[in-house]
Amino acid sequence: MLFTSYEFVVFMLFLALPLRYAVPTKLVPLTLLVLSYGFYLSWSVPYTVLLAAMTLASYGIAKLMSPSANINARSGAVGTPQVMARPRARKKLILALGVAGLLALLSYFKYSNFVLSQLHVDKKLDVVLPLGISFFVFEMISYLVDVYRGTPPAKSLVQYFVYIAYFPHLIAGPIVRANELLPQLERPRKFDGAMAAEGVFIALVGFVKKMVFADNFGLFADAVFKDPTNQPTFALWLGVLAYTGQIFCDFSGYTDIARGASLAMGIELPENFDYPYNSTSSTEFWRRWHMTLSRWLRDYLYISLGGNRGGKFATYRNLFLTMLLGGLWHGASWTFVAWGAWHGVLLALHKLFVDLTKKNKAFIWLRKNALYRALSWVTTFFVVVLGWVLFRAQKFDAAKVVLLGMFKWVPFVPTQASNELIFTGRALIVLALVHVLGGARVGLRAHRGMPPAARGVLWASMIAVCYLFAVGSPVFIYFQF
Question: Is the pLDDT of residue 82 over 60?
């Protein structure tokens, strides 16, 4: 059941929303659990069983690390001797086994055939990647680590099951922390018209991003990457920029639909994108792009590797390794690893530059200069765009052809395909303007101040635009991860 399908619209309008607000407050978590598992069941029964089994196992592992946490939480006691006396070594072993088991399952589904191909084994395993496994495995790991670090576990099995399987974020994020969702399940909100209206608007923004921009950009980008040889230089650049716009609109569009649908049901999910192409450094880019993944990598991988402890070299190394593994998380391909390494180098170099210049008065003044910031933005956008070539190309040979072609002049000759090129160029200009203006949340602020009738007209216009420009490409890019 894809977000851009009629089935999902029917599911939300005639089942999820009415049930959510019709049942008594105490039954909201159970209702959300039934809806979420029904949502996942529409894709696969066996993998729904797998999801339930993994959820139950991770819940039990957390209880083993803190078996009396529920009792303490209800009584108001924190850090009682019974909990504190549990040997730390045993808790660490339980955590290690739990995380290893989750990663083993993720690796089997995601990397087994990749490993076999690297070992030149002709036989391939008949493995289908469960939808959303990369995301819900990361949520289970974050939950286990948080409990290990002292956070009380979920107060009920139902609430934990909802936390993992909550359908808006189940398939492609955002990656939600337990402390972001569980408190909202403990005290479900009553219907709030303003919140529901804002949720509808945010979801419609997501539909526009996906159906109007991402899918149309994808048509042009796919054509360029499918046959990059002898493409005009201008067409190659436009194709790469089209993919740059596609992946942002596709993924942030999914997140907007997820956040909007959830907000309409009275539950807030964290933002995942903060207009990342406005960034003026690689560090800022990763604070704005896929923000929940960036925070996860920082809190559960970078810090576990040592973070900034151990000196400057160790910090640069840990930044690089974190992004290298982050690239591998995206898929079983060396191009993803190279993309992660590319951003790891960029982060390490930016951190080195900041360390060398942070006390220099000339650079302190320069950072406040508008021209310097403009050059920083151009540089950051340029290196991010180059990185997307690695991300999009399925093999290094294809990436090499595209990258070399971008810097080898081949004149553009108008053809019948020029109309597609012109359309793509205009759409990119529109997206760029919206991206810059969106940094001030102009659209959301304007929506909040509109009377109901004006909102209705706006919503209808957005729906009409989606169907006018839809090209029939409902699959989201991040479903493959």
Answer: no
One-letter amino acid at 231 equals: Q
pLDDT per position as a tens digit, 390-433: 999 989 999 999 999 999 887 776 664 566 777 788 888 888 88
**Contacts for 225 with CB less than 8 Å, ≥ 6 apart:** 239, 243, 392, 393, 398, 402
DSSP string, 150-203: T----S-HHHHHHHHH-HHHHTT-----HHHHHHHHHSPPPP-HHHHHHHHHHH
pTM for this structure?
0.90
Q: Which of 330, 343, 350, 447 is catalytic?
A: 330
Work out the pLDDT band at 71, boundaries 50, 70, 90: very low
CB 51 within 8 A of CB 165: yes
pLDDT of residue 435: 79
Q: 330 catalytic, yes or no?
A: yes
DSSP structure string for 103-155: HHHHHHHHHHHHHHHHTT--------PPTTHHHHHHHHHHHHHHHHTT----S
